[in-house]
Design brief:
Elements: E1 2-11, E2 20-27, E3 30-35, E4 41-46, E5 51-54, E6 56-58, H1 73-76, E7 80-85, H2 95-104, E8 110-113, E9 115-116, H3 117-125, H4 134-150, E10 154-158, H5 169-181, E11 185-189, H6 197-211, E12 214-217, H7 231-246, E13 251-255, E14 261-264, H8 265-269, H9 280-285, H10 287-303, E15 310-314, H11 326-332, H12 337-348, E16 351-354, H13 359-367, E17 371-373, H14 390-405, H15 411-418, H16 420-425, E18 442-445, E19 466-471, E20 474-477
Parallel strand pairs: 1-4, 1-5, 6-7, 7-8, 9-10, 10-11, 11-12, 12-13, 13-17
Antiparallel strand pairs: 1-2, 2-3, 5-18, 14-16, 15-16, 18-19, 19-20
The protein binds zinc ion (ZN).
Amino acid sequence: MLDLVIKGARICDGTGNPWYGGDVAVRGERIAAVGVVRARARRAVDGAGLVLCPGFVDVHTHSDGIVEHPAAENILRQGVTTVVSGNCGGSRLPVAAMLDRVEAGRPAVNYATLVGHGSVRGRVMGAAKRRPTRKESARMCRLVEAAMRDGAVGMSTGLFYVPGAYAQVDEIVAVAKVVAGYGGVYATHKRSAGGKLFQALREAATVGKRAGIAVEISHLKILHRRGRTRPDRVEAVLAAVERYRAQGVDMTCDVHPYPATFTGLSSVVIPPWCAKDGKLRERMRDAAVRRRIRAEVAGKIAWIGGPDRITIARFDPDPSLNGRSLADVAGARKGTAASVAMDLVAEGDPRCIFHALRPADVARIVCHPAVMIASDGGVVGARRGVVHPRNYGTFPRIYREYVRERRLLSLEEAVRKMTSLPARKFGIRDRGLIAPGMRADLVLFDPARIAERATFDAPHSFPAGIRAVVVNGHVAWDGKRVSRQRAGAVIRTG
Ligand SMILES: [Zn+2]
């Protein structure tokens, strides 16, 4: 007896091949058969007129909040069945303990993690802005090796952030070699998306070449100097990725389909040197140093297009600022954007949405064959406050905008970018495809109705058109209700 059969759906199997009609049968946690299924099943779902594809694999997330909020409803209801956490250089340590905690909480979706180089460096060197000694480098390698043995799928760097920004390429190559020895991936939040973007890509390629490791450029994005938007820049960036691939570097990228980023204000506007040794506040109090910092902060705000492009999302010391722009707050406080930004950083460093990307660049990146879709989001616990809509809408938005409305991607190519491509790249071998023997992670959706509903103004909205989500053979979402039995697994590779 089968546990589940989905009958007569358009099967889009994740390979990129054209869809075909058929049934998919599930026994236990795995796909038992694909094609015409006659055997009886405990549960049958009618797939007529619907697309059945592998569950979406979201390789760029910050979803350690799944420990506190294992239902992860904003993730599950997009059709995402697997998340990879520990991105941008930050992960919990040790990885073994984190994986155990996630497992004990019985998550609704599958969870895998990278080990964060920034977290490892912070553990060994604090906020020191210098090269590691031989001893420190060896200690970092040992910590990374332990994480890989414990089941991390690779290592991430956040070279834009402190302390990752203090690391030079030799340091990264040394730890990346350890990761390569376990078949792990190197995912990097590049050092610059602005003026030094091409150097940053070259640095990632250098790590790939010298460490012999597969490289993932996290959330590929392009910042244009204010007033000098250059449409050819995105073409040059994608050509660089293709050139590195031609040179033998397995470089791919991920992106989410929104022209806005989300992170801490300090990481975008405060130059990394100011945070050296953890003495940012001290430096900002010294009048002469403050003037120097303020000039650089003003330059950084101008780079991304001005203070009206920055929306404060979460500022715990004064939640009344949430949802307001930096321009607005600077006006209310009667200060310049740069000095008010520095004050906000000192008062509690708000999380902000930066409306800084060119929509045409985002579309071009989304459609490139070496680019996969990833949300850069996480688990939203409570449905309130200002959050980036990518947390609720990334995957349905790809279908709605790129496949159905603009016809820039085929159904099959869009699904490939959300399933087999990310699963293969991150070493998750038994997910991301519909085939007998694979884990039964599935999404059934209505191609005429699937759409994101979350917007920047109303971000806490679940998508439409997702008719069922199956995680490890269990129907976790049936189009009406979330199952209380959470069936996600912790993925340990290596
Ligand atoms: Zn990042």
